[in-house]
Amino acid sequence: MRVALLSDLHIGMHRPRLVQPMLDAISDAAPEHIVVAGDLVQRARRELFAEAEAILDQTGLPWLCVPGNHDIPLMNVPGRLLWPFHEYEMSVPGPREPLLELPGLKIIGVNSTFPYRWRNGRLTDRQIARVKNLARTGPVMVVQHHPISLLPGETKELMLNAEKAITAYDEAGVDLVLTGHLHHFNLASSASGMKQIHAASALCDRSEDPPNEIAILDAEAGGFQLTRMIAPKDGADFVPQPPIALPSRR
Ligand SMILES: [Fe+2]
Ligand SMILES: [Fe+2]
């Protein structure tokens, strides 16, 4: 089973010249599904969501997404508080917390975006309990926008309940946690082997970010292979990197 991992497209503040190379890289890798870890758009406007949807639909593949902090209104306070996910839901197929059971990989989507927090997000006890319950049979990948751990050397505040989530996911036997938001790739491991994949941004045009990238995940008997595909800042293609082997926990 092969899945393409994307995050932080930020359509509206993206690099249009990388859209076709991204689609070509996905087409060449021939995954069966696409997973997007939020921040589809820069601002939660219908035309930007429609553009993001059109780009992803061009792959001809099914895709699932969870909301990011950029996918809800920022300055429109009534919209942010009263119907924050309205525009998102007009374009993104499926629920805000999708569940996908593929052969060899169960993907549990979690909505960590919380309109009352500026950008850091939160998880509720109920959301954490849902993951624990669904993770009884695996292998399992949780996907949510906000990270549950920091990058090495970083001191930023984590979302509310991050520590609780990391412990609960780990104890439940979750194999992989895919998160976005930081725009920096990182791979972390818990003492018992749960891997946290911090995704870089697929397309965002923020000058201080590292190069854009996407990843391909292969779920195989006994584990996973993660292949990063990086578009150098002066390049025109997403270049596959040597695969990283990630053992399964069960
Ligand atoms: Fe982002
Ligand atoms: Fe974000």
Q: Key terms for this structure?
A:
250 residues; alpha/beta; Purple Acid Phosphatase, chain A, domain 2; seven-stranded mixed beta sheet; six-stranded mixed beta sheet; 6 helices; globular; binds fe (ii) ion
Topology:
Layout: E1 2-6, H1 19-29, E2 33-36, H2 46-57, E3 63-65, H3 77-82, H4 86-91, E4 99-102, E5 105-109, H5 125-134, E6 140-144, H6 162-172, E7 176-183, E8 186-189, E9 195-200, E10 212-220, E11 223-231, E12 239-240, E13 244-247
Parallel strand pairs: 1-2, 2-3, 5-6, 6-7, 7-9
Antiparallel strand pairs: 1-10, 4-5, 8-9, 10-11, 11-12, 11-13
Helix pairs in contact: 5-6
The structure holds fe (ii) ion (FE2) (2 copies).
Organism: Paracoccus aurantiacus
GO molecular function: hydrolase activity; metal ion binding
Protein name: Metallophosphoesterase
How would you characterize this protein structure?
The chain has six helices and 13 strands. It starts with a strand and ends with a strand. The mean pLDDT is 94. By secondary structure, it is α/β, with parallel strands linked by helices. The protein has one domain (2-247): Metallo-dependent phosphatases (Purple Acid Phosphatase, chain A, domain 2, 4-Layer Sandwich). The chain has helices at 19-29, 46-57, 77-82, 86-91, 125-134, 162-172, and strands spanning 2-6, 33-36, 63-65, 99-102, 105-109, 140-144, 176-183, 186-189, 195-200, 212-220, 223-231, 239-240, 244-247. Strands 1, 2, 3, 10, 11, 12 and 13 form a seven-stranded mixed beta sheet that branches. Strands 4-5-6-7-9-8 form a six-stranded mixed beta sheet, with no helix packed on it. One fe (ii) ion (FE2) binds at residues 8, 10, 39, 68, 70, 181, 183.
